C-alpha cells in the first residue's frame, strides 16, 4: 500500500448535526491540525502500546506543530476496553489539567478507538476526538460513527456513549504492517456492509477473493471507501440508534453481532471481532431462511464469501446454552425478547422480533460443528 505515487485522498463526509470528514489515503495525518481546529492547546494521544512507532510518530508530529502532547499508551487490543484503563486515562488527563478546549487523538485498532472515544466522551462530559485508525476494521467501521465503549464482566460494549469524532484519518500505509488475520477480520465488516446495503462490495470480493484477502489487492481502496460510505449514510440519519430515518436505522450495522458478540465473550475475546461476526452473519442468514425470508442461495452466498476470505462459518455445537445466555445482554434485546437483524432480501435488513426457540435452535444447528 505504501509504494509508488499515490492518488489523492478520498474524502467521505459523515452528515448529521456536526458533520465531519473521513479521509482515506496516504500521509493523511498532515490534516490532523486542520481537523483539531483552532483553540486546542493540549492533545492527549491514546495509542495502543504494541504500536509504539505509530503513536509516538503522531505525538511527535503534534509536538512539532506546537501542541503540548501527552502520550497515553494503553494495552493491546481488547485489553484496552476496561474501566481500569479508562480510569488510568482520566487520571493522566487530570494530572495534565486537560480542559474542554483540549483534544484526544486515538491511534490504533478498533479497540483503541473505542476506548479513546469513550475517554473523550466522558472527560469533562465530552472533549473533541480525532481518530487515526490503523486496522482495516477500525478504518471501515469502529472509528466512524461515534459509537464508543468498553466491556464489562457481563459482556461486550455494555458501557459507552455516542460521541462522534471531529474527523477520521485512515492512513493506508498503516495497513502494510497489519497481520494477515487482522486484515481478514476487517473484511468481515466490509462484507457486512455488502450484505446490508451495497452488494457491489460482494461482487468485488467474489470477482477476486484472493485479492480481497490481502491489503495489497486491486480493490482495496474501493472496498474501504464503499464500506465507510455505507456506515456514513446510516449514522448520518440515525446517530443514536433510535431507528430514525426509515428502514431499521443504525441497528442494521449490528448484522451478525448478536451471536458474534456472544462468541467473543464465550471465547474470552480470543476470537477476533470479524471472525465472530462472520459466524454470526451466517447464523442470522440461516435464521432468515428458516423464517422463509431469504433463499437458500443467499444463505450459501454468505458461506461462500466468508469461506473464500478464510473467515469461519461454524461454531462448536456444545456452547449453545452459554451463547444463548450471553445473547440476553445484547443491546437490541427488550426485556426477555431477543431481536436480531436479518435480511428480507439482499440489501434489505429488517428486525426479526422474538424468533421462537425452535427457529433459533435450528439456525444454530446449521452453523454448528
Ligand atoms: N465503535 C464501533 O462502531 C465499532 C465497530 C466495529 C468494531 N468495533 C470494535 O473494534 C474492536 C476490534 O477492532 P480491531 O479489529 O481493529 O482490533 P484491535 O484494535 O484489537 O487490533 C487488532 C490487533 O492489531 C494490532 N494492530 C493495529 N494496527 C496495526 C498495524 N497497523 N500494524 C500491526 N498491528 C496492528 C493491534 O495492536 C491488535 O493486536 C472490537 O472491540 C470491536 O468491538 C467497534
Ligand atoms: O456502529 C454501529 O452501530 C455498529 O453496530 C457497528 C458494529 O460493527 C460494531 O461492532 C459496534 O461496536 C457494535 O455495537 P454494539 O452497540 O452492538 O455494542
Ligand atoms: Zn462490528
From TrEMBL:
Q: From which lineage does this chain's organism come?
A: Bacteria, Bacillati, Actinomycetota, Actinomycetes, Sporichthyales
Q: What family name appears in the similarity comment?
A: Belongs to the sugar phosphate cyclases superfamily. Dehydroquinate synthase family.
Gene name?
aroB
According to the entry, every stretch annotated as the 3-dehydroquinate synthase C-terminal domain falls at 186-333
Q: What protein is this chain from? A: 3-dehydroquinate synthase
Q: What is its EC number?
A: 4.2.3.4
| Species, as recorded | Sporichthya brevicatena
**Localization per record:** Cytoplasm
Where along this sequence does the record place binding of Zn(2+)?
A: 189, 257, 273
* Broad class of the protein's primary localization: cytoplasm
| Known cofactor(s) | NAD(+); Co(2+); Zn(2+)
Report which superkingdom the organism of origin falls in: Bacteria
Its pathway?
Metabolic intermediate biosynthesis; chorismate biosynthesis; chorismate from D-erythrose 4-phosphate and phosphoenolpyruvate: step 2/7
Functional note = Catalyzes the conversion of 3-deoxy-D-arabino-heptulosonate 7-phosphate (DAHP) to dehydroquinate (DHQ).
Amino acid at each position: 500500500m505504501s509504494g509508488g505515487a499515490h492518488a489523492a485522498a478520498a474524502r467521505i463526509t459523515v452528515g448529521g448535526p456536526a458533520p465531519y470528514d473521513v479521509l482515506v489515503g496516504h500521509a493523511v495525518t498532515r490534516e490532523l491540525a486542520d481537523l483539531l481546529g483552532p483553540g486546542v492547546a493540549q492533545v492527549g494521544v491514546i495509542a495502543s502500546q504494541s504500536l509504539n512507532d505509530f503513536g509516538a510518530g503522531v505525538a511527535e508530529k503534534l509536538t512539532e506543530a506546537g501542541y503540548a502532547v501527552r502520550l497515553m499508551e494503553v494495552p493491546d487490543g481488547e485489553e484496552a476496553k476496561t474501566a481500569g484503563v479508562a480510569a488510568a486515562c482520566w487520571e493522566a488527563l487530570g494530572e495534565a489539567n486537560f480542559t474542554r478546549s483540549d483534544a484526544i487523538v486515538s491511534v490504533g485498532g478498533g479497540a483503541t478507538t473505542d476506548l479513546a472515544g469513550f475517554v473523550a466522551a466522558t472527560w469533562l462530559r465530552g472533549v473533541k476526538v480525532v481518530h487515526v485508525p490503523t486496522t482495516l476494521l477500525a478504518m471501515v467501521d469502529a472509528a466512524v460513527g461515534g459509537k464508543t465503549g468498553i466491556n464489562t464482566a457481563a459482556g461486550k460494549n455494555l458501557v459507552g456513549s455516542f460521541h462522534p469524532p471531529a474527523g477520521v484519518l485512515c492512513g493506508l500505509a498503516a495497513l502494510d504492517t497489519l497481520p494477515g488475520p487482522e486484515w481478514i477480520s476487517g473484511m468481515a465488516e466490509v462484507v457486512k456492509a455488502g450484505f446490508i446495503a451495497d452488494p457491489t462490495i460482494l461482487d468485488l470480493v467474489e470477482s477476486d477473493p484472493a485479492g480481497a484477502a490481502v491489503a495489497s489487492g486491486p480493490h482495496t481502496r474501493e472496498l474501504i471507501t464503499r464500506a465507510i460510505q455505507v456506515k456514513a449514510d446510516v449514522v448520518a440519519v440515525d446517530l443514536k440508534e433510535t431507528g430514525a430515518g426509515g428502514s431499521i436505522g443504525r441497528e442494521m450495522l449490528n448484522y451478525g453481532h448478536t451471536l458474534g458478540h456472544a462468541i467473543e465473550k464465550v471465547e474470552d475475546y480470543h476470537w477476533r471481532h470479524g471472525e465472530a461476526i462472520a459466524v454470526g452473519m451466517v447464523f442470522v442468514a440461516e435464521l432468515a431462511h428458516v423464517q422463509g425470508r431469504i433463499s437458500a442461495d443467499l444463505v450459501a452466498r454468505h458461506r461462500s464469501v466468508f469461506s473464500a476470505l478464510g473467515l469461519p462459518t461454524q461454531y462448536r455445537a456444545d456452547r449453545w446454552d452459554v451463547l444463548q445466555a450471553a445473547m440476553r445482554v445484547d443491546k437490541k434485546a427488550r426485556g426477555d425478547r431477543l431481536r436480531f437483524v436479518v435480511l428480507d432480501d439482499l440489501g434489505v435488513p429488517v428486525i426479526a422480533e422474538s424468533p421462537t426457540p425452535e427457529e433459533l435452535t435450528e439456525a444454530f444447528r446449521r452453523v454448528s460443528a
